[in-house]
Specification:
alpha/beta, five-stranded mixed sheet, four-stranded mixed sheet, 7 helices, 28% helix
């Protein structure tokens, strides 16, 4: 099992209350405030920024939750792109990224700007906890055996799968790559993958899709910041302390 949580006393105490799994936030600060108002340990599945009205505020709140040792976030493709921009890397910009950067460069957000890059550089791309896996985009069985690479560095195969999901060679009419869910059939029996990235639900609730190998994927992105809303799921404690 890949161990990524700093199990000091505060984190252990919080995790004894269970987990709250939060989907893509995309700058929806009001909803994110509600999501982190819990005594459970928060695992946010990536894409904190872009689209919504207050990406800087969302980042500040996430940093606060991490400082209080009661939550963490996984790197999403939008978070990675923001980190690369802050590193001065050449990339294809978008209006949403430009808006997020403009927010961060405002004087009132200097605190977030100065603290953010090291946090993005250390955000995990996936996390394994027993037979539960948390990832932004999509799963690959090798994630059960390999630690995630540096999230702002070279894009490896597994990092690409974690960030962008599984794609075909075709483009959709909206200009984005066509995505497929064949990876769901590779989830081993008894495993559950919690992911965001793809808004698959049609009723506004997280969507569970079973795979042919006996595992399942649960999609928690329900369109926050994009005209939908923010979703989260509460899970029981993931481990029991031995005496």
């Amino acid at each position: 099992m890949l161990e990524l949580l700093p199990h000091d006393g505060n984190v252990k105490d919080t995790m004894r209350n269970g987990l709250r799994i939060v989907g893509d936030v995309h700058g929806d600060l009001d909803a994110f405030r509600h999501a982190v108002a819990t005594d459970r340990f928060v695992i946010q599945l990536g894409d904190l920024v872009d689209y919504g009205p207050d990406s800087a505020g969302v980042l500040r709140l996430m940093l606060q939750v991490m400082h209080e040792k009661r939550g963490l976030f996984l790197i999403g493709n939008h978070d990675r792109k923001l980190g690369r921009a802050l590193m001065g890397k050449r990339l294809r910009s978008t209006p949403h990224l430009e808006d997020t950067l403009a927010q961060l460069y405002r004087p009132e957000n200097t605190d977030v700007l100065h603290a953010l890059l090291p946090v993005l550089e250390n955000a995990p791309a996936w996390m394994v906890m027993g037979q539960t896996v948390f990832v932004h985009g999509a799963f690959d069985p090798r994630m059960l055996m390999e630690p995630p690479p540096p999230p702002l560095g070279r894009v490896t195969y597994l990092l690409s799968r974690a960030l962008f999901g599984e794609t075909t060679n075709r483009m959709q009419p909206d200009g984005y790559p066509e995505r497929t869910l064949n990876w769901v059939n590779t989830i081993p029996a008894g495993y559950t993958i919690y992911c965001g990235h793809d808004q698959r639900s049609t009723n506004g609730c997280p969507l569970a899709i079973p795979g042919r190998s006996g595992g399942q994927a649960i999609f928690v992105d329900t369109g926050a910041g994009k005209g939908g809303h923010l979703a989260w799921l509460d899970l029981p404690p993931p481990f029991v302390e031995k005496a």
